[in-house]
Amino acid sequence: MALFGLFGKKKKETLDKGLEKTKTSWFDKLAKTVAGKSKVDDEVLDDLEEVLITSDVGVDTTLKIIERIEERVARDKYVSTKELNAILKEEIAALLEENNTGNNDDWDLPSSHKPYVILVVGVNGVGKTTTIGKLAYQFKNAGKKVYIGAADTFRAAAVEQLCIWGERVGVPVIKQKMGADPASVAFDTLSSAKANGADVVLIDTAGRLHNKVGLMNELKKIKDVMKKVLPEAPDEVLLVLDGSTGQNAFEQAKQFSSVTQITSLAVTKLDGTAKGGVVIGISDQLKVPVKYIGLGEGMEDLQLFNKFEFVDSLFGK
Q1: What is the distance between the alpha carbons of residues 262 and 218, in angstroms, rounded to a whole number?
Q2: Cross-strand partners of 266
Q3: CB neighbour list of residue 120: distance below 8 Å, 6 or more residues apart
Q4: pLDDT above 70: residue 230
């Protein structure tokens, strides 16, 4: 059942459209897997394994799904190929449920304190700055007072882009000169946000993953400085990944997890790719919830990830 009451019909249509390439590729492969077969047997399961892996679900997650389906086939003795879609849908939904992914229904924030601070990380080119702009729009639209900190001081383009987003959305962007200390920008942003009663703060950071030690030290310094203003900051460390890169996104996620604790994920550019299966694998392997997905260029095309609607769109008619 589609949760239009919570999710909204327009958002669901955007999700359906955004996942169209993934769905078409997925079902074309599945159709070949079961062609001329009436029963789910070892050969069908081997082919299904290949379908999932080539759909960027990832090897480990694929093996987990296949194992669960094998258990059902063994238990039920006979499973027709017509039931395969429904079983696959159930098992993927169950995996997302176990990883606490997609439990957000609105743009509310914890009310225990404010501002709520989100530190945004990710390599250059994944849509990090754009995601921050869209998050600012969504939070402001939900009635929140938003501040942005331009702490990626190594790229003039990142600061300029954030300032443009700030103007478009109507939220203040705190910045310093090029090459300034990122931790200093974070300190200024939180100080200003706290003094002005902001509800949420979004801090951009540099994405230089090739220098992992430097990145680790920089993120630690930013966090330490934040705590001088707000002891609980950051409330969230959001990793932005480009879904169209498939398994490369998964590798980035693993590497970022090795330099700092990631608490949530945003997967962008899903509308232009057939690699939407990567959402399932990343969530399962990292045990980090996917919180947002990007489905287009528009400000409203960044959505809260809803696991039920995602699976429904992936397997919808």
Answers
A1: 15
A2: 240, 292
A3: 128, 131, 132, 202, 203, 204, 205, 238, 240
A4: yes
Cα–Cα distances (Å) from 270 to 47, 192, 194, 235, in that order, read 25, 35, 35, 26
**Distance (Å, whole) CA 218 – CA 260:** 10
Residue 289: asked if its preceding bond is cis (omega within 30°), the reply is no
> How far is Cα 224 from Cα 221, in angstroms, rounded to an integer?
5
Give the pairing type, strands 290-294 and 302-304.
antiparallel
The identity of residue 132, as a single letter, is I
Compute the C-alpha angle 262/122/206, nearest 5°: 115
Residues making up the chain, counted from first to last: 317
pTM, whole model, 2 decimals? 0.91
Three-class SS state of 39: strand
**Each residue of 130-150: b (16+ CB within 10 Å) or e?**
bbbbbbbbbbbeeebbbbbbb
pLDDT digits (tens, 9 = 90+) for 35-51: 888 888 899 999 999 99
Instruction: Identify the residue whose tokens are 């098992």.
Output: 91
pLDDT tens-digit series, residues 47-105: 999 999 988 999 999 999 999 999 988 888 778 888 888 899 999 988 888 866 556 66
- The answer to whether 296 and 303 are in contact (CB under 8 A) is no
User: Which residues, including other chains, have CB under 8 Å from residue 10's CB and lie 6 or more apart?
Assistant: none
Cβ-contact 280, 310 below 8 angstroms:
no
Structure tokens at 284: 């399962």
Q: What is the CB-side half-sphere exposure of residue 133 using CA atoms within 13 A?
A: 20
